[in-house]
Amino acid sequence: MKFRSRLVVNLDHFAYNINQIRKISPKAQILCMIKADGYGHGMIPMARYAITEMGIREFGCATIGEALKLREELNELEFDIYVFSDIQLELLENADIYLKRRIIPVISNVSELDYILHTPEFRHFPICLKFNTGMNRLGLDPNDTPLIVNKLKQHGRNSVHHLISHYANASSDMNAHEVNVLQRTRFGEIKKFFRDSGITLERTSQSNSGTIEQKVGLPENSDDTHVRPGLMLYGPSSLNSGVPGNFEGKLVSKLETYILRTFEVKKGDVVGYNSTPCPEDGLIAILAIGYGDGFFNRYSGAHLYHKGFEGVIIGRVSMDMTHVFFPKEASDHIRAHEIFTIWGAKDGDLQSFCSETKIIPYEVFCALLPRVPRVYRLN
Ligand SMILES: Cc1ncc(COP(=O)(O)O)c(C=O)c1O
């Protein structure tokens, strides 16, 4: 046995998903969101593959630390990096990192803009602005658009490298959800104001996965140049059920573990911490995965499948182990040491796992801890 639990990452599926996005919008430039360690898949290998095999040239991180790691580890490759949230621009040592390592901070308040405009070293540095069109998280206030435009002009900055907005409800219908409609309208007004004031917008983007899936904010039907997919790169759809989309992704990852031990139980026998009673006579398979791997106690009750048998996670998940209860017919078939696939064995299994546990795939992916090695495969 060479591994305990592992995340098997299929790079061909990653390529497939990028190509699906290109089919949805042949004209869009893709800025791949690879924050949070590439949504748990491993930021460096995913970015390297995206650059060398798929011709992707722009990436989005959340923190300056992530961006620096990307720049340092892929130093020989040509690409742009944006830092979206934790930019810490006004710390002196960070300013140096942005300037010397060609990392672009996404500016989301006026004081950060002032800092860029008033610091001589940033005189020729690309300006990327993110507006809060209704998500009410980070972002410049649309009411400040005239003020911002004035500041740019006063400093002789007649172009913006990238103008960004982000949706709060992209999993819902882009044409029906009133916040989506409001956000779209506001973003259109902001872009118009900049352009009417003589500021060139070199790049603009509004679309994350749910928006792309609904074909909104694409160069084909708007004046935007870029899209910023995250989740869909890794396979799952982010649309709520019933919202029509145009994306059939392939799940990039497969979470595998193995069975440490099996034993037969009688109805009422208790297992694990808190002594959870078994509902029937059956078989327990103990998996070599637990919350020390990022596999949560909240997954208790979810169904998992092995050799055609349906099992259920029973009782409390421990730090290193998970009990799965199978019907007694499984006793002759399920054995210790077998590889056990938690998700990624068949279409839709991750989605069912997420629906049952009410945990979004974003969180399931990002939760996986470094104890789970990521291994990369090509078909
Ligand atoms: C600004 C911004 N753009 C794009 C994305 C990608 O979103 P998704 O993973 O839903 O595609 C995110 C992710 O949170 C984001 O914060």
From TrEMBL:
Needed cofactors: pyridoxal 5'-phosphate
GO biological process: alanine metabolic process
UniProt KW keywords: Isomerase, Pyridoxal phosphate
InterPro entries hit by this protein: Ala_racemase, Ala_racemase/Decarboxylase_C, Ala_racemase_C, Ala_racemase_N, PLP-binding_barrel
Cellular component per GO, a single term: cytosol
Pfam families on file: Ala_racemase_C, Ala_racemase_N
Example GO molecular function: pyridoxal phosphate binding
Residues binding substrate, per UniProt: R137, M319
Modified residues (N6-(pyridoxal phosphate)lysine): K35
NCBIfam families listed in its UniProt record: alr
Protein name: Alanine racemase
Organism classification: Bacteria, Pseudomonadati, Bdellovibrionota, Bacteriovoracia, Bacteriovoracales
